[in-house]
């Protein structure tokens, strides 16, 4: 495995991720929408960057999981003739993993700064608060995924170190035993011991290989058990994150239900006010009609009063003339 193969494994899986998401949600994009995605639905910068970071972490975790056995089984070449991962390839894998983890950690810090620098909206406090909580949970989930990947890499490195130490001890133990035997006995015993060791080299090597095979089997079982524990912890953390997100979604749903109830009450009040306004308009029309009729009655009354005034004046003048005539005629 070389650097090109490692870099080739980190391909863009955005299309596959989108297909999986739409299949889960029950929505399937057609070929035209996949080739020419709609630009009307704008994706936020935070979502795009978080998806990129998540894809990088998943790719690195998948790469480490695929190369786990080849990386850990350092002594497999002693038991079979099949070629395994060399030390240079292991070092290259560690460098690539360290580089990608560092870049992912920086990207997560950038996401946190972007989330902190986001403008607050006073008119949409509920939506803004839920969006901030969602972004915070996303950043925490990405950080936990990165921690699990780092734990997997550290586990692989620790097993490599343990195997290197065990191999060094296995290679140094025969020479130590031989030196102690030569120092404790005389020259004759030491020569006999050397001849015995030289006459039976294959038996000692075969026993060591059998012990090594048994230890490797036990070690592989322990490694798989630890890997299973890591995966269980990761699943547990993911389940906890999903539970928290589910709780936040339930809170948002309850708030949206309250908002819909308030909106229904508001619409009911608006309808009642509209009915009252229509009634007031009808009353105003009736009042204007009554005022017009009253004006007509007033005009008729004023006309009648004008005729009566003329009659009254005529009667007064006639009566005054009669009184003057009587006063003149009958002094």
TrEMBL record:
Stretches that traverse the bilayer: 311-330
One CC-aspect GO term: SNARE complex
The protein's name: t-SNARE coiled-coil homology domain-containing protein
Matches recorded under Gene3D superfamilies: 1.20.5.110
InterPro entries registered for this protein in UniProt: SNARE, T_SNARE_dom
Keywords: Coiled coil, Membrane, Protein transport, Transmembrane, Transmembrane helix, Transport
Principal place of residence: membrane
KW Heme (keyword) present: no
Cell location: Membrane
Gene Ontology biological process terms, A to Z: protein transport; retrograde vesicle-mediated transport, Golgi to endoplasmic reticulum
Membership in a protein family: Belongs to the syntaxin family.
Domain (T-SNARE coiled-coil homology): residue spans on this chain: 239-301
Topology in membrane: Single-pass type IV membrane protein
